[in-house]
Design brief:
By secondary structure, the protein is α/β, with parallel strands linked by helices. Helix content is 25%, strand content 27%. The chain folds into 2 domains: 185 residues, FAD/NAD(P)-binding domain (3-Layer(bba) Sandwich); 119 residues, FAD/NAD(P)-binding domain (3-Layer(bba) Sandwich), CATH 3.50.50.
Length: 314
């Protein structure tokens, strides 16, 4: 097995804006980073159609194309980018061991975790079919495209309430679909929703189907109390039932919150293990934007570079 061990100064686990930005900075600092992209190279942005809120793209850019640009820039400075996923880690020693696809073993002096988070979905076929064609898991990213239109949002927590009030500023009407008879959101957020005239909260309701062939043109909602089905005439359908960070393989080694987000030292990307850094949506449950992920990727690379210099390794 020893012949399959690869030794590197900097290993980046995961791609997306955080991982690629970390790679750009690490490569320019001559750390010769090795990146494994994970099963979704480019991360969540590859399922986003149009990105209009990232600085430097005045006309907007297609999400997958943007990630191709990030990747090309990382490669230009010498990042070794490979397809594969981290299946196991051992952070017990000064050299961090990571297994890729359960076969290749990488020994890294620093590890930058950029595994991101995945949106939780309802799991109905029409949701998958229309994802990117009116179905979205990010109101802040995609709400603008539904200006003046009627939309629906599913969820009952703070994020759903916040996104519903955000959409209410842009859209004519917002239906908020809540499965139970009450919201989980904080009292302040609930008040904000209930005091917004163009938000209609549908309690005791669940989505049966999202309608439309090529784009969303409605939603069927079932009320468990009245046992009645109702068709909502909406052109946008937002899912805000939470995100799950892709951090399961690190849970025996790193501190996490109750949802699985990696806890870092405030103002840095440092985890509780020296030489292991976490960036992007794997540790950020508040902002979750491409631009903030990229910023934290930069922090991760700078923190890794300083760690190596102080340890006398690089």
């Amino acid at each position: 097995m020893s012949d399959a061990i690869e030794k590197v100064d900097c290993l980046i686990i995961g791609s997306g804006p955080a991982g690629y930005t970390a790679a750009i900075y690490a490569a320019r600092a001559a750390l010769k980073p090795l990146m494994y992209t994970g099963m979704q190279p480019g991360g969540q942005l590859t399922i986003t159609t149009e990105v209009e809120n990232y600085p430097g793209y005045p006309k907007g850019i297609d999400g997958p194309q943007m990630m191709e640009d990030f990747k090309a820039q990382a490669e230009r400075f010498g990042t070794d980018i490979r397809f594969g996923y981290a299946s196991k880690v051992d952070f017990s020693g000064p050299v961090h061991k990571v297994w890729i696809d359960e076969t290749t073993e990488v020994h890294a002096n620093t590890v930058i975790i950029a595994t991101g988070a995945s949106a939780k979905w309802l799991g109905i076929p029409s949701e998958e079919k229309l994802n990117g064609f009116g179905v979205s898991a990010c109101a802040v990213c995609d709400g603008f495209f539904f200006k003046g239109q009627d939309v629906a949002i599913v969820g009952a927590g703070d994020t759903a309430a916040e996104e519903a009030t955000y959409l209410a500023k842009l859209c004519k009407k917002v239906y908020m679909i809540v499965r139970k008879g009450e919201m989980r959101a904080s009292k302040a957020m609930q008040q904000r929703v209930l005091n917004t005239p163009n938000i209609e909260v549908l309690f005791d309701s669940e989505t049966k189907e999202i309608l439309g062939e090529k784009a969303v043109d409605g939603a069927l909602v079932y009320n468990s109390k009245t046992k009645q089905e109702r068709k909502l005439d909406v052109t946008g359908f937002f899912v805000a039932i939470g995100h799950k960070p892709n951090t399961d393989i690190f849970k025996d080694w790193l501190d996490m919150d109750e949802s699985g987000y990696i806890i870092t030292t405030p103002g840095t990307s440092k985890t509780k293990i020296k030489g292991v850094f976490a960036v992007g949506d794997a540790q950020d449950k508040v902002y979750r934007q491409a631009v903030t992920a990229a910023g934290s990727g930069c922090m991760g690379a700078l923190d890794a570079e300083r760690y190596l210099a102080e340890a006398g390794i690089h």
